[in-house]
Write a structure and sequence with these properties.
binds iron/sulfur cluster, TIM Barrel, alpha/beta, globular, seven-stranded mixed sheet, two-stranded antiparallel ribbon, 25% strand
């Protein structure tokens, strides 16, 4: 099974609890104003197609990670492939966190409408951050959540809402690898830094 991936970071602490392997998928039809990843909007173009089994092997062979975070782009717009990846990673003993621009209620509506893979992806997620990113309401209290309207759902016993890690300051990471600059983490400052680097490039 193939998944179109826009970006990968093998060891981030800015996209969920612990050190995580983060995968940004390509394609999002939601298009929130102020989204910091507009280059990931278009489906079928940009990024690269990867084999889900190969990607899972790479994730599970990465030392020191607690789990996988799936971001976008919109993971639920490639739900079957993302769910398949999540199942392989879970089977290898890692946790799965998913960020979606859809609310959980919208996703449950998609399940009722028979959209393939949506229930499977909900089933494999330990954590879901749901809802549109609202750039006018930046989240300053909850870590790993972009805006105050978004809800962090705990779907398994792997994590608890009273874990202090969920209540510390958000962070942004910059890394330069092979001449490629990657900026990820808290959306508002990450977006500011991206614009700054684009202007000075
Ligand atoms: S759902 Fe996510 S990727 Fe899509 S536009 Fe909103 S913030 Fe950007």
């Amino acid at each position: 099974m193939k998944l179109r991936v826009a970006q990968q970071v093998k060891d981030t602490e800015a996209e969920g609890p612990g050190v995580r392997y983060a995968v940004w998928v390509q394609g999002c039809t939601i298009r929130c104003a102020g989204c910091c990843n507009p280059e990931m909007f278009v489906h079928g173009k940009g990024g690269r197609e990867v084999d889900v089994d190969e990607l899972a092997r790479d994730i599970l062979s990465t030392p020191g990670i607690e789990g996988l975070s799936m971001l976008g782009g919109e993971p639920f717009e490639q739900a079957e492939a993302v769910a398949a990846l999540g199942r392989l990673v879970k089977a290898g003993g890692k946790t799965v966190m998913v960020y979606s621009g859809y609310t959980l209620a919208e996703l449950e509506g998609q399940v009722r409408s028979g959209v393939p893979g949506v229930q499977a992806l909900l089933d494999v997620a330990d954590l879901l951050v749901d809802g549109r990113y609202d750039a006018t309401r930046p989240e300053k209290v909850r870590r790993w959540v972009g805006s105050t309207n978004q809800v962090l759902h705990f779907f398994s016993d792997a994590y608890r809402p009273d874990d202090p890690r969920f209540w510390s300051a958000n962070t942004v990471e910059l890394r330069l690898e092979g001449g490629q600059l990657t900026i990820n983490g808290w959306p508002a400052p990450a977006d500011f830094l991206r614009r700054l680097f684009r202007q000075s490039a």
